[in-house]
Design a protein that fits this description.
The complex is a heterotrimer of chains A (502), B (361) and C (167). Chain A has 502 residues and is mainly alpha-helical. Helices cover 57% and strands 0% of the residues of chain A. The chains are: A mainly alpha (502), B mainly alpha (361), C alpha+beta (167).
Chain lengths: 502, 361, 167
């Protein structure tokens, strides 16, 4: 223990030196680790900083002669809606670009009130403006001069406000010209004007009625967007609203005697839900069935042709059925008779029943041959529906008990498919055909029900196994307890008494 | 000689077996009103053993990797004989173990068993508690179902909130910027190799310390027994206490079996990273109190981001928790009252926040 | 807790228990029976499931990214069949030229199950007349996206289908 002072101090000194060295080494290791942990990786640094992938609109392309900006092709970027394509940005700055872009009309008209006013922002959203057209492209006149008289000179070709009757012709002067349109978008159709002339609107306009729809009523004016732009009035999402501006207005439609409930009805339909809620642009809107430029109702005996473009199977069944001839003879509009034209709601089995939603009984008499057939059809469908539900219940029970039943669950979709198929086959109005589908579905549903029951049996088997194991454990625990009691009762009793001392 | 006695003498000749286990024979367990709490440590150890055993068995069929993990668990639970049992026992035992670990920690806290000279036992124990929660977090992802995927996403996202080291730590945990198959592989490595290795070491240290230092007696009982030595009661660890513990372990096994058979663990739906997160994603119950706390902190406190402050807060509390014994007075017979107060507050806070988090939308 | 106690003093000799043995003989036997029987029962209850677990099941697990969709000779040329791929349906088609093609069978429009039309030589969805070509590309009707295409390998007499990308 006791050491001489000298020895102790030298020991201390060398110890201190070693301690200093080791402290330094320790500190540098810690520093190294901290540095490794904190310094970001090259990719991490970039990703963590500036948001990756700067937007397409950073494209700096200087506008070429007629501003054929490829970036603002008819499709996507226009949907971004930003008035930042080179053409328009060139317009707002002092243009070094060709004089074609100078548009002095906007200098005055952007600050005038309605109806003469068109703001620069509004016009910048127009696809024509983005392609390099100025006001003069439609209205004539000279957009390069600041002199109002020179700019708006009727003798020099200025048209002023275009008359409604002239509008289709005016738009068609470009849009009907394939050679011209090819410069901008070779895939654009150029038969809109021809189609328009066949439409109800076109025919009435030719007859002198200027209240009917012309191009600008649907496509808007001065801020026309391509149909693919979700804000465009003619984008599928907005078409019904655009049509309803006139067709849902009682005052406008009164002179024509056309009902005005179509939009209200359509808003209740599954097709409307598909477009607005699910964003499914393939679902039909007004123009899908009525046409857009050649707008006219398909015609009473042609309705099923229109529906059959999507609902192929149903149409095929209907073609072969007894109802086709019957409806044709009675001049009834096919599909529309049972499903309505605008208010096409999701069909339920109640349509086949005898209650308030029943469609069959609106024509057929109670108790007749067809009524009985209807009952049979309904009974079969209900039977399959119930079988599927029962199997689903059993499987859900098994699943809730922890059994793995994903295979029968998957197979249930086959049964559901069979039910869907049966409901489609109803349009053949033939009992045998519907029954075939139902039997197929019943087989699958039955198999799945049995799988669910098997799973429940397995569950019960497990519980029995658990019971047995718990019994074994109880036995063991009882044995241990008894053993403990025994060895502790064997311990000498004096111990307890003796414990009183010390 | 009986076979057992023969084996013992054989071992003794080669390993000096009797000398080795002599301390065990002498070990006693104090008997008082609060003795029942002594069971919790052993119970946690037992459940850990169950985890190791069932985990090894699960390893025979489980495949890590985004393409195969869910399917391998599905196969295990449906096709492999008693696979459902082992998997459910593993999941239930995990939760039970985390519960007993917390209970054990709180009982030690309230019975003041962390006082000198048992500070290191406490430190190793708290680190073990953190490891056990890490086990829970890493293991939860392994079946690669929707809940696990999004819970991991949120959990690692919160880790990234720590200033300075948070982001590198998050990237380290995730094996990249996002939660992907790489995260799964990494968590698998943590769960079956890294964490078990560290945990085994710490458990060994922890138990060794308990054996060396003996069982602690709560302060009040201690003072009673100092005043009245004849009132002191001790039970032999082996065989008396050990047998009782064995009973408790068997009962726990029975409970696990019942839970596995009657409330089997859900398989869920395979994770789809491109699907939106299901509404109301919550972590497992043992993280709820932290999760709920973070949700309640306002988004900005002064100039600091609320969530960052919360995460730092938890880090500080965790550190203090580890160092708790060093705040205790050196006079072990008069422990500080404020520590008891803090302990009560902590328990109430954790329980309250967990319930709140469970009931909240 | 039970009544066993022991004082701190180690000098206390333990009294030999033979005097009590006579009294507790039947109880001892009962205890031993309980203990032995319990231990055996619990051991069996643990070992049996573990033993069964260790034996690999008959239906092999190929992993989530590969399944056997069918056997060679099962499909005639120009026909198709639905098979299960994980938790979703897949479509296996044998073209008129004898080649095998596989793709997801869930229509990308409204999730109906598609089928192979041998008259059209196309994959068709009965719900709204959607059509896909043999590579799964959507070519007509409402479907907005192609069907996910799978790789097909014929090994021996089994047709293996595997996913192309890791999720």
């Amino acid at each position: 223990m006791a050491t001489s002072l000298n020895r102790k101090s030298s020991k201390t000194r060398s110890t201190v030196r070693r301690f200093r060295v080791s402290r330094f080494v320790f500190a540098s290791i810690v520093a190294l680790l901290v540095f490794a942990a904190v310094s970001p990786e090259p990719s991490a640094a970039m990703a963590g900083g500036v948001p990756s992938g700067s937007t397409v609109n950073a494209a700096p392309a200087a506008p070429s002669a007629n501003a054929n900006t490829p970036a603002s092709a008819i499709s996507a970027p226009a949907s971004a809606g930003k008035p930042d394509t080179p053409a328009t940005s060139a317009k707002s700055e002092t243009p070094t670009a060709p004089a074609a872009h100078k548009d002095t009309c906007l200098d005055c008209h952007s600050i005038l009130p309605e109806p003469l006013g068109v703001t620069a922002e509004k016009f910048a959203e127009d696809i024509h403006s983005q392609k390099g057209l100025t006001c003069a492209g439609c209205h004539g006149g000279d957009p390069t001069t600041d002199d109002a008289d020179k700019a708006m000179n009727r003798k020099a070709g200025w048209k002023g406000k275009i008359e409604r009757k002239q509008i289709p012709q005016l738009c068609g002067s470009c849009h009907d010209n394939p050679a011209y349109m090819r410069q901008y978008n070779p895939s654009l159709r150029t038969d809109q004007l021809a189609q328009y002339h066949t439409s109800i609107h076109g025919k009435r306009l030719a007859g002198g009625d200027t209240k009917v729809a012309v191009c600008i009523d649907c496509h808007s004016v001065h801020d026309i967007k391509p149909p693919s732009d979700p804000r465009a009035t003619v984008n599928p999402v907005n078409v019904a609203k655009t049509c309803s501006r006139c067709h849902a207005d009682a005052a406008t439609m009164k002179p024509y005697g056309i009902p005005t409930d179509q939009f209200a009805n359509y808003s209740k339909s599954v097709h409307h839900d598909a477009i607005t809620k699910r964003g499914d642009l393939s679902a039909p809107t007004c123009t899908t069935c009525h046409g857009n430029h050649g707008a006219a109702p398909p015609g009473v005996d042609k309705v099923q042709n229109v529906c059959s473009t999507c609902h192929v199977f149903q149409a095929q069944m209907y073609e072969k059925s007894s109802h086709k001839d019957a409806f044709n003879k009675a001049n009834l509009p096919g599909c529309v008779v049972c499903h309505s034209n605008h208010a096409i709601t999701h069909p339920t089995d109640a349509k086949l029943a005898a209650g308030p939603e029943a469609v069959c009984m609106t024509c057929h008499t109670k108790g007749d041959r067809c009524d009985q057939a209807r009952e049979t059809l309904l009974a079969g469908i209900t039977r399959l529906d119930d079988a599927i539900k029962r199997a689903d219940q059993e499987l859900a029970l098994a699943e809730a008990s922890g059994m793995e039943v994903s295979q029968p669950r998957l197979a249930q979709s086959q049964a559901s498919d069979a039910l869907t198929k049966a409901r489609v086959t109803i349009h053949s109005f033939k009992k045998e055909l519907v029954d075939a589908d139902i039997q197929e579905g019943l087989k699958v549903a039955q198999a799945n029900l049995m799988a669910g029951q098997k799973a429940m049996a397995e569950r019960n088997y497990r519980r029995v196994g658990l019971g047995i194991s718990l019994l074994a454990i109880a036995l063991m625990v009882a044995g241990l307890w008894a053993y403990i009691k025994e060895i502790e009762s064997e311990e000498p009793q004096e111990v307890m008494v003796k414990g009183a001392g010390d | 000689m009986t076979v057992l006695a023969q084996v013992r003498s054989w071992l003794d000749e080669r390993l000096e077996w009797d000398d080795l286990i002599a301390p065990l024979r002498k070990k006693t367990v104090p008997r008082h009103k609060l003795s029942y709490w002594y069971f919790l440590g052993g119970m946690t150890l037992f459940l850990f053993g169950v985890q190791v055993l069932t985990g090894i068995l699960l390893l025979l069929y489980y495949r890590p990797g985004a393409n195969e993990a869910f399917e391998s668990v599905q196969y295990l639970v449906t096709q492999v004989q008693f696979g459902w049992l082992l998997r459910s026992i593993h999941s239930w035992s995990a939760n039970l173990m985390i519960f007993t670990a917390f209970a054990h920690m709180f009982s030690v806290l309230f019975l003041k068993a962390y006082r000198k000279p048992r500070e290191l036992t406490w430190v190793s124990g708290v680190v073990l508690l953190f490891l056990v929660m890490g086990f829970g977090f890493s293991g939860y992802l392994l079946p690669w179902n929707t809940l696990a995927y999004f819970a991991t996403k949120v959990g690692t996202e919160i880790t990234g909130q720590v200033p300075v080291v948070g982001r590198p730590l998050m990237i380290f945990l995730r094996g990249g910027e996002d939660v992907t198959g790489a995260t799964l592989t990494r968590f698998f490595g943590f769960h079956v190799a890294v964490l078990p290795g560290i945990a085994t070491l710490l458990i060994a240290i922890h138990i060794l310390l308990v054996q060396r230092l003996g069982m602690s007696v709560p302060p009040r009982v201690e003072s009673e027994w100092t005043v009245n030595p004849s009132a002191r009661r001790e039970m032999k660890f082996f065989p008396n206490f050990a047998l009782r513990e064995l009973m408790a372990w068997y009962v726990a096994l029975g409970i696990l079996g019942a839970l596995a058979a009657i409330f089997p663990w859900n398989l869920g739906v395979k994770a789809d990273p491109f699907a939106p997160a299901p509404a109301g994603i919550k972590p497992e119950w043992y993280f709820l109190f932290m999760f709920q706390t973070l949700k309640l902190i306002p988004s900005k406190i002064w100039i600091i981001d609320g969530e960052v402050l919360g995460v730092i807060g938890f880090g500080v509390v965790a550190l203090l928790w580890v160092l708790l014994p060093f705040f205790e007075s050196q006079e072990t017979s008069r422990p500080k009252k404020w520590i008891t107060g803090a302990a009560i507050f902590a328990l109430a806070y954790m329980m309250g926040m967990s319930i709140y988090g469970h009931l909240a939308q | 807790m039970a009544t066993g106690q022991q004082t701190v003093k180690p000098q206390q000799a333990v009294k030999p228990p033979d005097k009590d043995k006579l009294k507790s003989a039947p109880r001892r036997w009962f205890t031993e029976a309980l203990l032995g029987g319990g231990f055996l029962a619990t051991a069996m209850a643990f070992i049996y499931p573990v033993f069964r677990y260790l034996i690999p099941p008959e239906t092999a697990d190929l992993g989530g990214d590969s399944v056997v969709a069918g056997k060679v000779g099962e499909l005639k040329p120009n026909s198709g069949k639905i098979f299960r791929f994980g938790s979703r349906p897949g479509l296996l088609v044998r073209t008129a030229g004898g080649e095998y093609k596989a793709m997801s069978a869930t229509c990308t429009h409204l999730s109906c199950t598609v089928q192979y039309r041998d008259d059209l030589h196309e994959v068709w969805c009965a719900c709204h007349n959607g059509k896909y070509n043999m590579d799964g590309r959507n070519i007509s009707g409402p479907p907005p996206r192609p069907l996910e295409a799978f790789d097909v390998n014929v090994r021996g007499d089994e047709i293996f289908v595997r996913r192309r990308r890791e999720v």
